[in-house]
User: Which sequence fits this backbone?
DNA sequence: ATCTAAATTTAGCCTCGACTAAATTTATTT
DNA sequence: AAATAAATTTAGTCGAGGCTAAATTTAGAT
């Protein structure tokens, strides 16, 4: 029987570094600490150890934040692939709703085998997006490019398909679900208020007035 | 977010204590160490801490081994229920074979939620046995009574249904599978050799001669 | 250019759960 | 009943990965 390795937290560090560095800049100690729900001093310690280890996963310079090496990025994408495949699979085969899956997937993502990953991916037909519409890294660990636009940028007469809902709060997710605002759904913008940045949107027969706080979290693909 | 608690290894201790104490006698330090693949001294340390904790899970007296309290037993059955439901579910929904499931279930059993447990139990129709025929503890954490007989006790002319195959070695499991000796299958004993304790058994159209080493691991229910 | 506030790092400490080596207790054999 | 062997426990150590408090660095504002 193999040693179980302390790869558990490391995976969490890598995953969050990936997310924090997506916009190009290094991940700060503080931001990482907030994401991981631990103290900044602990992050510094862990990052310093990580940066020193044999297969170099992260690049680190004091006070400058941390970034992933190509190897570290692959490791992060592996975890993210696990997470998103698991969410998809929990929703599709066990009837979880999109506001319930995150926590469960968070725990499972660290312990499933590559074999398990392959099996659920195949069973689901190698999906490209999870239930929130987040892109699932491919089997060879590339993150597909996202060509969506925030709903907040649409204006009257434009129609679009909702691709992604970048919200984590379960209450908000349930609310959006009740408004019919879920991935795959088609919408049409009918009004725009420059004053408060609200959009009026038709979803089927429903008419919803959506504030900025929501419209920046919904990403769509325009229908020409 | 909750603290993740060091309940991981504790669950392993409880599970193995449960198994070792099934025949009535306390689990010895040495046996536990072998099962857990750690050194006896480590077991002593952990058991002493466990025995001191607030919800008392184990009963321990120096040099006398360890047993489970009712609470500890419930905790053990919870893990075992997780394990066996997971094995069943991996086989039935993801196409794992019975020689592949153990390792994966071993890792998953510690991280699934009670909600997840309920969902797979329901999806599987609340099964009572796992793919090896092991009894699955009920939702209220009782271990059903096992009324099977070892195949080794059968004699010519007796027919039976295989209920349980108490083997862990993947090679042996694949071998038994190739002989058709899996739970649910009906067999009939045609010969018995008192000399070497071999049984000749008809499985469908197959005739197998089975040695003691195998016949003590297969448990059956007689067909009257 | 300096001063202050915020971010980060350092230093030292703690708990967990393993380990080794040595001591002790129990069991077996003569 | 003593002697040896086997099992168990004790004592002390280690690495992981957190934490706090204090020191230091960077950044923003006057």
Assistant:
């Amino acid at each position: 029987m193999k040693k179980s390795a302390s790869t558990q937290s490391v995976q969490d560090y890598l995953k969050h570094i990936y997310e924090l560095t997506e916009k190009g800049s290094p991940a700060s100690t503080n931001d990482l600490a907030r994401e991981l729900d631990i103290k900044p001093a602990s992050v510094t310690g862990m990052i310093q150890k990580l940066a020193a280890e044999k297969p170099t996963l992260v690049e680190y310079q004091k006070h400058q934040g941390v970034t992933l090496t190509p190897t570290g990025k692959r490791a992060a994408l592996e975890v993210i692939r696990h997470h998103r495949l698991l969410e998809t699979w929990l929703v599709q085969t066990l009837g979880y709703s999109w506001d319930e899956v995150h926590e469960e997937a968070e725990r499972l993502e660290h312990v499933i085998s590559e074999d398990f990953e392959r099996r659920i991916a195949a069973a689901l037909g190698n999906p490209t997006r999870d239930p929130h519409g987040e892109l699932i890294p491919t089997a060879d660990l590339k993150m597909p490019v996202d060509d969506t636009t925030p709903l907040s940028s649409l204006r009257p007469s434009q129609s679009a398909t909702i691709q992604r809902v970048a919200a984590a709060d379960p209450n908000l997710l349930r609310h959006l679900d009740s408004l019919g605002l879920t991935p795959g759904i088609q919408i049409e913008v009918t009004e725009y208020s420059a004053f408060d940045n609200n959009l009026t949107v038709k979803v089927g027969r429903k008419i919803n007035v959506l504030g900025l706080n929501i419209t920046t979290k919904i990403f769509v693909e325009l229908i020409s």
In short: Strands of chain A lie at 58-61, 65-68, 149-150, 159-165, 186-193, 198-203, 206-210, 218-223. Chain A touches chain B at residues 1, 37, 93-96, 100, 103-104, 107-108, 110-113, 115-116, 119-120, 123 (CB under 8 Å).
